[in-house]
Every structure is written in structure tokens, then in C-alpha cells.
């Protein structure tokens, strides 16, 4: 009945309007026409396959008998699901909050550290947040300011969690200046306008700008590696020192650990297969467990959040809420080139963004990212867009995407494809791009890049929103949207970027959609304002507010005793204790030598050089402070490169240790 009604509304609207698509939407090139046929045919076949498959697939019969009662059911163990679950448990400690995840661990899909670039998206360097208004010639900054405000909410919430001991420390985040790189006269002109406009605001006031080759080289040596000083076209960069690199996979795992410690329930290897609302507004949810039983588990929840990435669309469709009518999803894949050579990595400890190619979607803005994953420094470059007819990267099949097609979203999907021919052509081109073309794209950032130094890896799968629109039938959107039922009992998150970076702000939006009553809403408001100083306030309008939030983040997350660097000192102290055989509180040459000979292949001469480099007071022994300051820096920066022959002066000149 629901599908027939949706189809009828779609046909009636199309017949009444009969509005032809604009000529600009259809390209005359052969590739464009073929791509249009490919997309249109794919959508129609997808609708037929998906609709037909699910029309003959029996739906589970849900019963409240022997069901598990919970206050809130969170579907999805990524950064969004775990953030919502933990925030809800903190706000309502007595509630039973249950999280289900289809994989055998959390953060397996888009949140995984290998499946994204790890940028703390604060709009400090991302060009797509500050487009040029062609009519006025001005750079628009509204989106950048909004995203920055949301990311400051993230920093404030994460700082509070670490400061209160809810999260163990700040090892999931580290300082990484954000740099925006442009070339060509138009690029330089645009960047000047961007910097001039943004630096008037406190959040962007620290932004530096330069067209000087030597200055740019001092910021990012890798950009100038092989680049002529007096090139054929001008280059320019802006740099903000307060940028960050975030390991969203590690953060997600920490969040779910904290949820469990606070009494939350996490159930892995479990997939939601059906939802049905009861007369009392509670939801019966069928959960298929990867076990030996032939039946589903049934969970009855007062509130449901679908935070399952690309799977959220299908969950809301299964729930049958009218608000999801006409919505579809466009799967977009991505790939990164990864470099693991220390001598190259040392030339870039930043997040470096460029401008997207003409016709490329916003998520394909090229960037050169310093990362630290599992203690290993590396550099990502990309993403290179691709297409895979799947919802998830690590599981499922193309049927998962086809299952989202129904008669109500066929028109929006077809219209979207025809209106975005530049995007379609771009995706087709990227899918069949040669390694030479990918290397050429990399060399715009790193002119002397060598193919043998870079390896290709697949990023996570994203599902972009396709929503019905009264004017153009179907509209493709690249942001995120929080969609809820009219009664406030089920909420879902659709879309992708900037997602993880602003997950606390999105979690707040999700919770405000739940109709929990005025008393709860008021209490939540009070609690959030205490946890997050910038909650409900404008960081650029209130003097000192931005500095207050940022200083707290520096103290707790980035540089203080609970930062990743300070936390890793605990590992250095543990190693010191293992070496200190006689437990006298200092390390003798004999103790260091015995340990290193049994655990490494270092020669006596190398060990002696190592001790001399760490021995600041020339006492012949290494104190704990000397060990903390010298050993980690020396091993991280010299031993891995096979260079132990360093003096005390050279040791002092080494850069501070990077968090692992």
C-alpha cells in the first residue's frame, strides 16, 4: 500500500508538471550519452531487481513474545552509532541502551582508519566549503563557519570525555597543521580572497598566507620536492596551525569501550532485518544473529537510531515511515595512494588540500594527508573516486543497494543521474583511470613522486543522498541529513561528509529529534551546556570563547599530560623499568646493552652512540627523564633510518616525537 501510494504521487506529480530537463543537464559528447544510458539503465534494472527480489522475499513475522525490552536501540557500530549511544547513556544513566553491529568488531566500515583520510574537518583548508560566487566574485564562507563551529563542538566534547576519565586519553588525535595549496592565477586569486575574508573571525585568525616558494617549502617540503622555484605558474598556500589528524577507528573503539563500562550493551555479529511499530509507538526490531539458531532475536525499543552508514536508508525504508518516501542513495567508492617510506613522510606532517577537478564531486577534493595508524606513520593521497554497486565495503552484496530501490524513488534517481552528467562522466573516467593518470594527479602535489613509493588501497564505501525535489524531481546532496519520524521515535542519519569530524554535533541533533518529553529535553540541554562550553553559543561572536575551547583541547588532547604523546610516555616508562635490572632508578650502559642485544641487532658501537646521545649530564648513566626525552626521539627518528651516529647537539635538534 505504501509503495503504491508513493508511486501514484510520483506519477501524478510528473504528469502535472511535465517539466523538461535543462539542456545543460545533457552533454553532447559520446561518453556523456553512454554514461547517461548506463546510469539510467542501471537505475531501472536496479529498481526491477531490488523491488522484485524483496517482493518475493518473505518478511519476518515479528512478535512481542520473548522480546528484549530496551529504552534505545542503536543500529551501527561506527563513529556515529557509538557517539550517539555513549552520549545517550551519559544523559540517561538508568536507560538500557543497546548497540548492534553486523561485523565482529566496531569501526569496520567507513570509520576504520584505513577507510578515510583522518582529517579533523574544521574548514581550515577544505576548499569546497568556500566556493566562489561567480555572480559577485566573492568567496562565500557561510558553510566554512558552520563546519568549524561544529568541529569545535567535537573538540570540546572529546576534551570533556578525556578530562573526566571517560575516554582513556587523547591518543586518537594529534596536531597536524592544515594547509590549502593552489596553483595558477585563478587559484591564487581565490585563495587570497578566502584568507582575507576568513581571518576576520577568531576561529580563522591564525591562518597564514604565502606565495613565497621558500616559505611554502618550510611548511611542506614535499610540495616543493622536484618543483622548480620559478615555475610556469604561480603557487600559494594558506596554513592554520591548529589543524588535527584524527584516528576515527581508534576513537570509535574507545567510545564503545566506555559505553560498555558505563553499562551499555553491545551485540556484535547481528544484523537488523525488519522493523515494525506497535500501537504504543514502541518498535519491534528483528535482529538476525550469526549463530546456529534459525530464528531472529526480537528487540522492543522506545527509541531507535539508524546510524549504519549506507545501511541507514534501507533501515528507514523497512520501518516504513512516510518521511523516507522518494529518498534514494548513490554509492560512491574511493581509493588512496599510500606511502610508507620514512624519508618521504618526514617531508610532510600536515594535512594538505587542493581544489577539486572540474566536474568532480566535493568528496573528491585531492589531499595529501599525514597519518599515524597502528603506530606507523604514513601519507595518504587521494581520493580517487570509483563506483561499486554496494552499500558496505566489508560485507554484503550489490543486492543491498538494489534493495533500496522502489517505485517511489525511481524518478528521483533517474532525474539525479541526468542532471549530474559531469559527475557521471567523472566517475566513469575515474573507474577506468590508468595508473599513469593517477601518478600524474599525485605529481601535481609531489612533482618528483616515484610510482614504486606509493601503494593503492580502497577507502570506505559512501552512500550519497538522493532526495525528491519538487522542481528537479531528484537532487543529489553531498552532506549529511538527520531524518526522523513525525512521532520522534526513530531517527536515521543519511549521507556522508563531514560525518565523523562533527559526530558529537550530529549526535546532539539526533537526540533532539527523539520525543522524550520536555523534562528530559531540558535536563539534556543543561548537561550538554556543562560538557560543551560552545554548546548553543557562537564561537566567533563571543570574545574569548574560541580561545577557551581551543586552549582546553591543546591542554587535554594535543599537548598536555593526557595527550597521546604524554600517554605514550607510560610505554617508555614501562620499557625503562624492564631495562633497569637492579631497580636503582638509573640505566647503566651494561643494562641498556644487555637489553638491546637480546631484543635488537644493534652493534656495540651503535649502543654506545645511543647512550652518549641520551646522556645529557655526561654522568655515564641514563636517568628516567633523560630516557623519556631522548630514547623515544632517537629511536623514532634515527634508528629506523639506520643512522645512530649522532651527537648530543644533533639529538637536541631533533623534532619533538610524533604520537603513535
Question: What attributes characterize this protein structure?
Answer:
globular, alpha+beta, ten-stranded mixed sheet, 660 residues, 22 strands, disordered N terminus, 39% helix, disordered C terminus, eight-stranded mixed sheet
Itemize the secondary structure elements and their pairings:
Elements: H1 2-17, H2 30-56, E1 68-75, H3 79-91, E2 97-100, H4 142-163, E3 173-175, E4 178-183, H5 185-198, E5 208-210, H6 213-219, E6 235-240, E7 244-246, H7 248-261, E8 265-267, E9 270-277, E10 283-289, E11 297-306, H8 312-319, E12 328-339, H9 342-345, E13 351-353, E14 367-373, E15 376-386, H10 398-402, H11 410-419, H12 421-431, H13 435-443, E16 455-458, E17 462-469, E18 473-477, E19 480-484, E20 490-495, H14 503-513, H15 518-531, H16 545-558, H17 564-579, E21 586-587, H18 589-599, H19 604-614, E22 622-623, H20 624-637, H21 648-652
Parallel strand pairs: 1-2, 1-11, 2-8, 4-13, 11-20
Antiparallel strand pairs: 3-7, 4-6, 5-6, 9-10, 10-11, 12-15, 12-16, 12-17, 13-14, 14-15, 17-18, 19-20, 21-22
Helix pairs in contact: 2-11, 2-12, 3-7, 3-14, 4-16, 17-20, 18-19
